[in-house]
Amino acid sequence: MRHHICIVSDFFYPGFGGVEIHIFNLSQCLVKLGHKVVIVTRAYGDRQGIRWITNGVKVYYCPLYAVRLPPGTVTLPTVHGMFPLLRQIFIREKATIVHGHQTTSNMCHEAMFHATTMGIPTVFTDHSLFGFADAASIHINKVLEWSLTNVGQVICVSHTCRENTVLRAKIKPSKVSVIPNATDPDKFKPTPSSGTWGSILQDTPITIVAITRLVYRKGADLLADVIPMICKKHKGVRWVIGGDGPRRLQIEQMVERNNLHRRVELLGEVKHEDVPGVLRRGQVFVNTSLTEAFCIAIIEAAACGHLVVSTRVGGVPEVMPHDMLILAEPDPRSIAACVTQAISQVRSVVPWDHHARIADMYNWNDVTKRTIAVYNKVATASPASLPDRIYMGLSLGRVYGVICAGLTAIDHFIWLFLKFISPADSIEPAVDYPTDL
Q1: pTM of the model
Q2: What are the residue ranges in the chain where pLDDT is below 50?
Q3: What is the predicted pLDDT for the residue at 71?
């Protein structure tokens, strides 16, 4: 079954992060398997309109107003405001599946809402973990609870993420599949030398690498505490830090205060195509995140032969075997102790063995085939009728449920009005990219 897939999210290139990498690699593999893929995202500065990326994947950069929030820059919610534009795209591209990514993307939720109104099957992928008690999480969870009543199937990147999503959105576990992230083993591989790190390095000091956004959520404060502790205990160890963010100043002040200019190298923002080269400079990778649903960075590091040290948070413990991953509590002393353990063990690690195991466990072809199985499932399911959707909305609560049911009814009438003033047969279909050339 060939699908015309419309992937929608506020997060895509030229933005950088796990969601952006996931969408790009998934789209490339889907195209190679014969499916059509278009991506709908927000405008990034002057990058507006239609662009084409590798293998003929079309990207719609919609000129919508966006604001910078702690989870990232996202479009403001319009509820029904994007419906005319999204309907045009869905009809032009003959979309048979609408696939939304990331809980914090307003564009994603609205696209799935309107697609369900139009009778197009929908899939949602959740990439993050959220709490239940703070105001921001409560708000996001209520939006997700409403949004997922309109979705055919949900994908989570780890079993921990699945449990978190089921509880937050109050949906049936049978509606949620677990499909992990992956990496490209042809890009992320160790240095050509064979043997253990001990035989490769000889007397060369060990280098520790950390590539992350320098923000509180990613544990930049923990990293700033751990670096001087390790440098004091291990005189020859060097650090390479890639990434940027509001906590960079704190890292720079730590380097200045401890006189570590010759042992700590701050690279700033690193383009994704340059990440493999940075990883190949080291032997130990450190992840200090305070919350992670999966953490694609640690499998990229392991694919480059690193022994990984990570905080024991979210879905991280289920990502790799414990001989490749040393888990620490999110505490500077615990992380420093685990880094010390990694320094003592890394010289016996065979980097190409780590690479082979990661290539076998996580590859995009397998992820794509499992995602297509989800597409096939929702494509053959019967679409929910308007009364069913209104009833599902009402089930969300006395007040909130009435609001959700009302929005569903209004969306249906807007759809009927759009069909009247702009019938589907009057919208010119888009020309497909000639993939057979």
Answers
A1: 0.88
A2: 437
A3: 60
Q: In 3-state terms, what secondary structure has residue 142?
A: helix
User: 325-331, long-range: CB within 8 Å, 24+ apart, which pairs?
Assistant: 325/298, 330/219, 330/222, 330/288, 330/290, 331/222
64: Cβ–Cβ under 8 A, 6 or more apart, which residues?
42, 43, 75, 76, 78, 82, 107
DSSP line for 155-171: EESSHHHHHHHHHHHT-
Distance CA 95, CA 72 (A): 27
Q: What backbone torsions phi and psi does residue 177 show, to the nearest 5 degrees?
A: -110, 155
At residue 127, φ and ψ (nearest 5 deg) are: -110, -5
Provide the pairing of β-strand 4-8 with 36-42. Answer: parallel
Task: Quote the tokens at residue 236.
Answer: 């020859």
Altogether, the residues listed in the chain come to a count of 437
Q: Return the structure tokens found at 436.
A: 């057979």
358 SS3 class: helix
The contacts of residue 255 (CB under 8 Å, 6+ apart) are 227, 261, 264, 266
Q: Are strands 238-242 and 264-268 parallel, antiparallel or unpaired?
A: parallel
Encode pLDDT of 346-382 as tens digits.
999 999 999 999 999 999 999 999 999 999 999 999 8
- Give pLDDT, residue 175: 93
Dihedral, CA of residue 218, residue 219, residue 221 and residue 226, to nearest 10: -140
Residue 156 tokens, joined? 């989570």
Q: How far is CA 31 from CA 5, 119, 156, 257, 372, in A?
A: 10, 24, 22, 51, 12
Cα dihedral sign, 281-282-287-293: positive
**Alpha carbon distance 103, 164 (integer Å):** 12
Contact 168, 143 (CB under 8 A): no
- Parallel, antiparallel, or unpaired for β 97-101 and 325-328? unpaired
Chain-centroid distance of CA 185 in Å reads 18
| Whether 76 contacts 99, CB under 8 Å | no
